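FAQ: What does a ligand-bound record look like?

Like this one, built around NAP:
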Amino acid sequence: MPAKILDGTKIANDIRSEVAAEVKTMVAAGVRPGLAVVLVGHNPASEIYVRGKVKASNEVGLYSEQHTPSESATTAKLLALIEDLNRRDEIDGILVQLPLPAQVDSKQVLMAVDPSKDVDGFHPVNVGSLSTQRPGLVPCTPAGVMEILNRSNIPIAGQEAVVVGRSDIVGKPAAMLLLNANATVTICHSKTPDLAAACRRADILIAAIGRPGMITCDFVKPGATVIDVGMNKVTDPAVFQRLFGGRLYKNAKREDAFLAKGSTLVGDVHPEVAEVAGALTPVPGGVGPLTIAMLMYNTVKAAKMRRGQWPVAGRRPSGSRRRSAMADH
Ligand code: NAP
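The answer part, i.e. the structure of the complex:
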C-alpha cells in the first residue's frame, strides 16, 4: 500500500492560525511581538526567503522590520546593527539571513545575537538549552519536523530514529529533539559505512542530506515514517528522469513544469520510497512550509520568554507529544 502523504502545508497553516490567535491575545494585552530580519546584499534566493518571512509575519500580526545593509557591509557594521536590535525592547526576534558575504565573520555576527532573541536557535546558549532540555529557542526546520510527527500521531518514544545529516541547522538539532522525545537515535553522515543498512533500522527516518533522491527503497524499512528535509533544485534532465521516469512514480504534471521552467525542486528521498514507507513528507509541501511557521512560533515564544511568561505551567518539555503550537518544544 502506498505511503500516507504527510501534508506539511496544512500543518504549517494550522500552526500559523494558532500563532495568529496568540498574537491577537498578546496585542490585546499591550504587546505586539516583533521580528527584525537582516538581509545583507542581494542574494536572489535569500531575497525570496526574506520576502516570505516578512509576509508571514504580517499575516500572523507580528511587528516586523527589515534591515538591508549593502553587499560591502563589514563585520563591525553588522555587529553595531545587532547590538542596536538587541537593545530595542520592541524587537523580540532577530534573524540574520545566511549566507553572509565572504568578508563578514558570520560566526561572530551570529554569536552577537542576544540568545533570548535568537529565533533561528543557532546560538550556543540555545544549542545547550536544547541538549539539556531547558527552555530555549529551537532551530525552525527540526522543530517543524517534530510538529509533523506529533500532529500526524506518529509514535516517537521507544522508536528507532535515524537522522542522515549532522549539520548544526538540521541534523544535530533534529537528533536532539528526537532523543528528548525518547526515541533511540542514530546520526549518520558521509563517513557512515553501509548507510542503507543503518537507515533500514529506522522506524522514523529523517533525510537532511542535500542529495536529490539519494534515499531509495533499499534504505527504508517497510512501514517506516520518512521525513524528507532535502530541498534540491534539479536542472539536469537525466536526474529528473532517474527520479520521475519510472512507471510507478511518473508525474506528468511535474514533467510539464520541468520542461517549461527547466528546473524542479526535489527532496533527498526518491519518489519510489512511497511504495515502501508507511508515511512520507512530499517535496514541495512537506517540511518546507513548517520552517516559516516555526519562525513565527519562535518569535512569539521569544516575546513570552523575555517577559517571563514561558514555560507556561502544565506545558511539556522539549519534543514531547502535544496538539497546540503554543506549547513548549
Ligand atoms: P549540510 O550542512 O550540507 O549537511 C548535509 C549533511 O549530509 C552532512 O552532515 C553530510 O555529511 C551529509 N551527507 C552528505 N552527503 C552524504 C552522503 N552521500 N551520505 C551520507 N551523508 C551525507 O546541509 P543542511 O543545511 O543540513 O541541509 C540538508 C538539506 O536540507 C539540504 O537539501 C537543504 O537544502 C535542506 N534544508 C531544507 C530546509 C527546509 O526548510 N525544508 C531547511 C534547511 C535545509 P558530513 O557531515 O559527513 O559532510
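Follow-up question: can I read anything off the structure? Yes, for example: Residues 314-322 have pLDDT under 50 and may be disordered.
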